[in-house]
Amino acid sequence: MESSEDDGGEPLSRLAEWRDVTPLPQDDGPNPVAPIAYKEEFRETMDYFRAIYKADERSPRALRLTRRAIHLNPGNYTVWHFRRLVLEPLNSDLDEELDFIQRIANSNSKNYQLWHHRRWVVERLGTNVRAKELHLIKSILSLDAKNYHAWSHRQWVLQALGGWEDELDYCQQLLEEDIFNNSAWNQRYFVVTRSPFLGGLTAMRASEVRYTVEAILANPNNECPWRYLRGLYKDDIESLVNNHEISSVCLKPCQEFRDAVVALWTSDSLPLDPDLATAICGILEHVDSMRASYWIWRKNKLPVAA
Amino acid sequence: MATRDPLDFDIGVEDDEDRTPSPSSISPPSSPPSYFDRDRHVAFFEMLYNLMPYHYQSQEINRLTLAFFTISGLHLLKALDRVDKDRVVSWVLSFQAHPRSRAESKNGQFYGFHGSRTSQFPPDENGVSVHNAGHLASTYCALAILKTVGFNMLTIDKESILISMRNLQQPDGSFMPVHVGAETDLRFVYCAAAICFMLEDWSGMDREKAKDYILNCQSYDGGFGLMPGLESHGGGTYCAVASLRLMGYIEDNLLSKNATSSIINVSLLLDWCMQRQAIDGGFQGRANKSSDTCYAFWVGAVLRILGGYKFIDKIALRQFLLTCQSEYGGFSKYPRELPDLYHSYYGYTAFSLLEEPGLNPLCAELGMTDLAALDRSIVLHHCIYTCNLCFVQVSYHTVKENSTRLLCGEKSLSPQQKPWCGEKTILTTQSRQNRFDSPR
């Protein structure tokens, strides 16, 4: 079983435990490009790792060595891979492994290898750890509500292990904390379209439109709900255009017309009142001057009035 | 400290990441310049090419990527003379994993390039590469470096790379970067497409399946997430669009073609991209996030590929990028911070997109210098050209020159077999150049 204590950073060459191992230095060749000025601790740890890896030694001390190497270099997928190879024959406690990953994640929450490793462990533990995982991800998101890795892991857990019941409420909560959080809007869409408990997009549309329109009225300069609204009508643009509630929101006089066009803007093949659309493009050229060339181009692409 | 693939974007960056310290040989000016300080950037990258400070040791596993940034960066800055090309070629080739036989390249391992010596051991007494850990991103970087220094790509053992690369493709069309298991997402679909494109051979992947995976990644708002269901993201969008372009599923300059049908929702994508330019002039990777230097490339390149780069506010972007330019050379992620290799490289690519004088033109789909555009002298006589998009060989009789690009007027096979049959496509002579020209 792996000790919870680190080696304390002692040079490996000074530890009795490693006396029988000859470290394997890296052979960079005679003319390496972009060589790195490794610190001594790093170089030594990796030299010992290479030796153990080459010998394919799957022992408790190998496990401890991978921990040390991971602390120094959490992005090294070879070390993580070897750790997985070692964990299995040692019959290690995978719950403890989750704790280990969590400790590394405290300073490396945006590291692909760590999250992949976590997934590997969770796959082996199964639905028993579902609640724990969802809870852990929540705590990471409470520190950074837009952590892409955390969201990716969360979507994987939901799809692989379930736990959808409270997810819409969770999105609601995050949006109450920050209505500008695009990750939360995206997760909302994910839940609404995929949750086995909610009946799918068409069934949810009416209530979601109400929710979204409220969000728009509260902050019309927030891009997220506008795009979300458009997304609710993904394959059914006609309904979007014919929805009076939405039209009135879009045409409501407000400072930022820019985002109004996003919702109104349907594919160019549908008949739009060309005068209105032209007028809006004209306004946007001025109020959204950063994108003036774009709005001019859009205006020129509008179908000509019959 | 986070791993730095070229495609790690910003979801791999910690806020307290160590930055490259200032080189003692370069003394900062009293106030930062309001122009692209090419000389300082060259000195900065030349320093890194020769030696990386210890701060980069945690990116050790991606040595080839670090080397790619320095070499390709110097090339963009028109300073490739700082690079010893022969030394680079032999060093890069030493990372290639070789199977003992053709049969072995189907054994499930990936015979691409290792990213570093961490996992590469000298072959054992039977000549076997033990613990082969070829990686898709390293392979992309290796090939990109070799192309940059003018190496004759025809001499590479591409068969092993391509045959074994198929092992990495998943049933849903995505790619795993290493055969021992890792995350699968759009980044590695892109690497695979770029590898096939650079080797001019698509036998390494099932393009249809890859295309399907990409389309599943398009979000409700028009951008692309890194995996289906994930939030649309500048880096994911780049990987999606560049891959589709490389594979031939979308044509160049789509917006000017008045294409009524495309496999992706182009107008929504375009609108999403346009909104990524924030009030400070920089580009953000996701809605309501801070502007960051590298998205001037990731999103800017998408716009370039679509033919919409002309719509952005270039003055505002330039102003933002200059606030991220370091007085020590290089670029930082956010204004007035210390520079790092990754953001510096993408700062240079962003300035190339802005057509900054003194920089080489950019190939948006590959994220490096547009080598074909550099080539002003094209040998037309007695050559057979291969169309990179419809793969039909055309003799020079049917080719007409249009500055540095040649247009293929050849009609070819059925739409089921090739994405752009029957249409005017652009072909490059790069494939033939290497056979007949001496290396640059």
From TrEMBL, chain A:
Entry keywords, A to Z: Magnesium, Prenyltransferase, Repeat, Transferase
Domain of life of the organism encoding this protein: Eukaryota
Record-stated family: Belongs to the protein prenyltransferase subunit alpha family.
Name of this protein: Protein farnesyltransferase/geranylgeranyltransferase type-1 subunit alpha
First-tier enzyme category under EC: transferase
Record-linked PANTHER family: PROTEIN FARNESYLTRANSFERASE ALPHA SUBUNIT/RAB GERANYLGERANYL TRANSFERASE ALPHA SUBUNIT (PTHR11129), PROTEIN FARNESYLTRANSFERASE_GERANYLGERANYLTRANSFERASE TYPE-1 SUBUNIT ALPHA (PTHR11129:SF1)
Record-listed E.C. numbers: 2.5.1.58, 2.5.1.59
Listed Pfam families: PPTA
Names of the cofactor(s): Mg(2+)
Organism of origin: Hibiscus sabdariffa
Ranges where the record places region Disordered: 1-34
Gene3D superfamilies referenced in this protein's UniProt entry, alphabetically: Protein prenylyltransferase (1.25.40.120)
From TrEMBL, chain B:
Annotated InterPro entries: GGTase_I_beta (IPR041960), PGGT1B-like (IPR045089), Prenyltrans (IPR001330), Terpenoid_cyclase/PrenylTrfase (IPR008930)
Source organism superkingdom: Eukaryota
Cofactor(s) required, per the database record: Zn(2+); Mg(2+)
Enzyme Commission number(s) of this protein: 2.5.1.59
The entry's keywords: Magnesium, Metal-binding, Prenyltransferase, Repeat, Transferase, Zinc
Region of interest (Disordered), residue spans: 1-34
Pfam families xrefs: Prenyltrans
Prenyltransferase alpha-alpha toroid domain segment(s): 36-363
Family: Belongs to the protein prenyltransferase subunit beta family.
Name of this chain's protein: Geranylgeranyl transferase type-1 subunit beta
Origin species: Hibiscus sabdariffa (roselle)
Phylogenetic classification of the source organism: Eukaryota, Viridiplantae, Streptophyta, Embryophyta, Tracheophyta
